Structures
1.
Amino acid sequence: MMLDKFTGWLISFMGAMILALSASSAYASYDRIILKNSTKYKIKAVAKYPGCSSDTWYQKAGKEVKNGIRGTVGRPKDGRGFCLVSVLRIYGLPGGTITWKPASATADVHFYVFKKSDGKYKVTSARNLSEMRDSKKTRKMSPGFRITNDSNWPLLVSLNQVGCLYYHTLKPGEVKVWNTGAVWFSINASLRLSGKKLSDLEVAKDCVLPVAMVVGAAYSAAMTAAAPESGASALSMFLAVPKAVGVSNLKRFGKNAAKAVYTSLDNGLPENVTVASVHGAYAGPPWPGRCTHMPEYKITGGLAGGNGDKEFQKIATSNGDTKSLVKHLTNKSTPLKITKIKNGC
């Protein structure tokens, strides 16, 4: 039976609409899952979608490199249309199958498989990782450094590569946390008696200052400020001001006495008392394989005296004998040392 002209036109129109809608749906549908395998194992991935067919695919192992593992990227062969993902399972890893399962099905596209700092493996979405980055718990995670000044005096501490990239003057007992890239640094520390931040001129010199400049600047300022009639002792002035060291009753010294102490210290202290460095310090791996905490270092030793040196304070507040002070500072000072107290992973 032949179709009339109107019926034929209607069928043609409906067919064109179906094709147009199909094309539109294909264009507007969710993208295929993209999975990054940052492990050294070949894996099998299975994604499940409520009301839709599952996807299964295989991915090569990641490649081991100096900084960790360079991940491989894989995805299902076919598109997912408007199907939401409810489960993503990974097979082939030590310890068995691992699973990502959200509270409700989502349109997530990007996923990661990696080894955690506790040795276990995890699969999660980029969205979940982003949420974890913002949590308070992850602020102490790698990459970065946590450095404590356990010496008696202010220290200029910097993280260097070709030049100084991060820097800070740490007071005794102060802790500094730097969030950095996942790269290597030299950690440098030098005596900063003035306790002041770096000037613009010093920063312009890439933070690389000879110890003589750092220490000498503090002594010079002390010599200018401490006159014999001054209420503050010259010795207390160039040893970082009474407020900073907890010494408020030092016997009054004149310029000559201060100069004698300065000259004796300048000639008698070895360089390793005033500067220290550690080379090849790694900040720890980046996302998604971050360590639960960043590498931690403490700085100890260095110039004697200061608030933590009771014997020094006793000599200074009793007879204030210049020779006794010089002898104490020379004999009791130890090499400034940067020690790693906790590894990143």
2.
Amino acid sequence: MVYVDPKNLGYEPYWLRWVGKRTNVVEREELIRLFQKYVPGSIDLICNGLRDGKPTEKLKTIVPFTNLNMARRLAVLYQYFVMPDLQISLPDVLWSSSLIL
């Protein structure tokens, strides 16, 4: 078994696998476009304290998150809000996503 630290792996492999499972081609392309526009900059600011590639003060969080954990939570929340017909309550989603930690 090979162990790779999440800090070294990053969130891109998880994201690519998740977005690749989306069956709607238009939705997949739009998700990729929005992801490339917003997520890397947001994660850089929150995790690394970088704004437009320049060091700034790192944002403080109550619970420390890795960039992979934030990408997972984004995927779970997106799936919950876009697919309301799944009959899943928000506490169930939050509980199940906390198991991924």
